[in-house]
Every structure is written in C-alpha cells, then in structure tokens.
Automatic annotation (TrEMBL):
Record-annotated Glycoside hydrolase family 29 N-terminal domain positions: 3-317
GO biological process: fucose metabolic process; glycoside catabolic process
A molecular-function term among this protein's GO annotations: alpha-L-fucosidase activity
EC number: 3.2.1.51
Gene3D superfamilies assigned: Glycosidases (3.20.20.80)
Transmembrane stretches, start-end: none
Species of the source: Leucobacter komagatae
A Pfam family per the record: Alpha_L_fucos
Protein name listed in UniProt: alpha-L-fucosidase
Positions of the record's site feature: May be important for catalysis: 252
The protein's role, per its UniProt record: Alpha-L-fucosidase is responsible for hydrolyzing the alpha-1,6-linked fucose joined to the reducing-end N-acetylglucosamine of the carbohydrate moieties of glycoproteins.
GO cellular component assignments: lysosome
C-alpha cells in the first residue's frame, strides 16, 4: 500500500459515495439498458435528447454524502454510453450540448465547498464513438456481420480521443483526488477485441495521471496495477494482502442492484445490512463506495435517500469505529468483526450470540460498554482480569447492528 501521505485521506475516509448519472438515467432501466435491450443508436437517442437534469443538485448530493459520513464522492463523468457530463471539446455527445450545463464542474465545485474529496469515474468503453470496435459487449454486436460493422472503424483514433478526453478532466477541473477507470475486459487479447491494457495504452494513461495529478489515487481497472483494488458487489473474506503487505481496497456496492437509476428494486439493501458490509470492509482494512443512481431528472430517489439517511445516523453514532479505523489483528468472535482505531478496539455484532461473547486473547482489564443511541454508555460487564479471555453476558440482548466499544489497555496496543 503506497505510503504516500497524500493518499492517507482515503484510508481515513472509509466511506465514499458513488454517483451513476447519465442519459441511461432517463431510461430508468439500468446503465446497461442500451446493451441489455440491444437498442440502436437511433432508439437510444430520445434518452439523450430528453436529458434535462433540472433536479440534479451537486450541492445536495455533496451534503447527502456528508450526512452519510462519506469523505469523498465519485461521479460518472462518462459511462459506457459515451455521453460526457462535462463540456468536452472532443465530442458533441455531451450534457453541455444538450442542456448547457457542465455537471462535472458543478460536482467538483460542490464537493470542495463541503470539504469533500473529489472523485471522477471515466469509462474506457464508449458505445457511441464511431471508431470504437463493435464487440461482445457492444449493444449493436451482431455475430453475423461484426466484420462488416467494424469495417472502417479505427481504434487508434478512438484511443487518441479517449486520451484527449482524459487530459481535459485532469487539467481543467483543479485537483482531482481519485480516479475510477472502468474497465478492461477480463480476457485481454491484443487485437482490440479483448480491449485490454495494451489496447488502451494503459501505461500512457497512468503516466498522464501521475504527471498531471501526482497526488491522485488511481484504481486498478486500467488492467495494470493501480493504487487500490476494486472488488465489485462482493466483500473479500479476509484482509487483502499482496506479498504479505496489506493492500488498499474499496468494495463498491449498489443500494438496489443497479448502478444507474432503475425504477424497480432489483436487490434492495437495508441500512443495517449496509452498516454490516461497511464494518466488514473496515475490519479488513477496506473502504465502501456506496452508489446512488439519481433519476432521469438528476434527483436523489426517495428510496436511496431513506437508506442513506438511516445509514448516516448509524455512521454518525459509530463514527469513531469507522472513520480513521481499520484492520485489527485480533481474532473476532464468530458473529462479529473488530475495527481498531489507535488503542481503541471496536467489536461489531450484527446479531447477538446466544451465550457469551468470548474474546480470546483479550484478557486483562476490558470493560464492555454499549453505546446507545442517546450517546449514553451502558456498562454491561467487566471481564475478570485474571481470565484467559474476556467475555460478556450477551444472552437476551436485543439483536441488531451496534458497536460495542472495548477500550483495550494492553501493553502491546
Ligand atoms: O459496466 C460497469 C457498470 O455499469 C458499473 O459502472 C460498475 C461500477 O463499478 N462497473 C462496471 C462493471 O464492472
């Protein structure tokens, strides 16, 4: 994990908010709707022409992120559809061309006004660009005449276009703290069909990032090593290590199963479940990037807002156990997870065990306290200083997500 001090904010923050917004939001059926429904460019055009983000309020999004407890917000500047949310001079397929607004400018200005770190998402895939090869993930892929469809397409021209757009984002919007590139195809082949690192000239893109934004964190989806690993919609089962060293990582999660606004709930997650996923990530030294998909007018959906507000109350109450906290080298009880901040150890129990919570290896003066919603501390029990481990009577306690704060005084802590 880079020890670059300019990257430490990311490890402190622990919570980020992802914002998937584009013309696909108007379709309201997932950001891959163009592909899933095999829409032609002409069939997709109405979503672009009717893109009118009158309820997109970057300040409201930034304040919502702050209430969530997030330290950074990541906006899709351009998703696979190719529709740019900034005033790009490389393309006329932009929000600015349609509605006269530069939403990336609004995003970065609002985050800075709220003291949040600036994150951008940039798609390596572009289904709109006339030179991007039609292939297995392209909406117009057609096995019979892919060759014919691709005649005349020049991916070298596309690569030059993509690098020019990236340069605009890295030079015209001030300090960018975080870049989420998305994505190199897993089975990289050399001949553009695989569209892997060599095809994007990922090394040149990374070098551009380092040159123009030397303190910016870059993810691993250029297909070459970056500054953090990006498990998507799953939780690692143990701290992520490479060569024995803990690796910086961030699990990105949706609230309802779709990144872009979807009118239906595909997989609605509750605030307690998201709190458990968050503590799970932090307990293994990772972050959670939680996504919202603003609707076709750019408004935060009532469904997302409700979950974010409840989760924000939890993270506010348990801030010390999350923000600035991380991996703890103690073996947690089966039902729980530890996070550690300095010499304070936090035990997170999503469900109360039937009997005692036995904390092996935590012998010594361990006082269990239970932080209640009103901030009062309820001393539930004290361990026997001479015992092998510490344990707490847990039977009969109400189930639910909470954090038990364990001030641990151990000589080696
Ligand atoms: O294809 C995208 C998807 O639409 C979404 O943006 C996620 C977010 O991490 N990334 C890609 C799938 O891995």
């Amino acid at each position: 994990m880079s020890s670059q001090p300019e990257h430490q904010w990311f490890d402190e923050a622990r919570i980020g908010m992802f914002v998937h917004f584009g013309a696909y939001s108007v379709a309201a059926r997932h950001e891959w709707v163009q592909n899933y429904e095999r829409l032609t460019a002409a069939e997709y055009l109405p979503y672009v022409e009717n893109f009118d983000p009158d309820r997109f309020d970057a300040g409201e999004i930034a304040r919502t992120a702050k209430r969530l407890g997030a330290g950074y917000v990541v906006l899709t500047t351009k998703h696979h559809e190719g529709f740019a949310l900034w005033n790009s001079r490389q393309s006329d397929f932009t929000a600015h061309a349609v509605c006269g607004r530069d939403l990336v400018r609004e995003h970065v200005d609002a985050l800075r006004a709220e003291g949040l770190r600036v994150g951008l998402y940039f798609s390596l895939i572009d289904w709109h660009h006339p030179d991007f090869l039609i292939d297995w993930v392209h909406p117009r892929r057609d096995d019979d005449n892919a060759q014919e469809l691709n005649a005349g397409r020049d991916m070298e021209r596309y690569r030059a276009f993509m690098h020019a757009q990236l340069r605009e984002l890295l030079t015209e919007y001030g300090q960018i703290d975080y870049m989420f590139f998305d994505f190199s195809y897993p089975e990289h082949k050399d001949g553009w069909d695989g569209k892997g690192p060599a095809d994007w000239d990922s090394e040149a893109m990374l070098a551009m990032c380092r040159e123009l934004q030397p303190n910016m964190l870059v993810n691993d989806r250029l297909g070459i090593p970056g500054d953090f690993y990006t498990p998507e919609q799953y939780q690692p089962t143990e701290p992520v290590r490479r060569g024995g060293e803990l690796v910086r990582w961030e699990a990105c999660q949706t609230i309802n199963g779709s990144w872009g606004y979807h009118r239906d709930n595909l997989d609605q997650k509750s605030a307690p479940l998201l709190a458990q996923m968050l503590t799970d990530s932090v307990s293994m030294g990772g972050n959670m990037l939680l996504n919202i998909g603003p609707d076709g007018r750019g408004g935060i959906s009532p469904r997302d807002r409700a979950v974010l507000e409840t989760l924000g109350e939890w993270t506010e109450l348990h801030r010390g156990a999350i923000v600035g906290a991380g991996y703890a080298e103690f073996e947690p009880p089966r039902e729980g997870a530890y996070t550690r901040r300095g010499d304070r150890l936090y035990l997170h129990l999503a469900t109360w065990p039937l009997g005692y919570v036995h904390l092996p290896g935590l012998a010594g003066k361990v006082t269990f306290t239970r932080l209640l919603h009103d901030g009062s501390w309820l001393r539930t029990s004290e361990s026997d200083p001479n015992s092998e481990g510490s344990q707490m009577e847990a039977a009969g306690q109400p189930a639910g997500t909470l954090t038990v704060h364990l001030p641990v005084q151990r000589p080696d802590v």
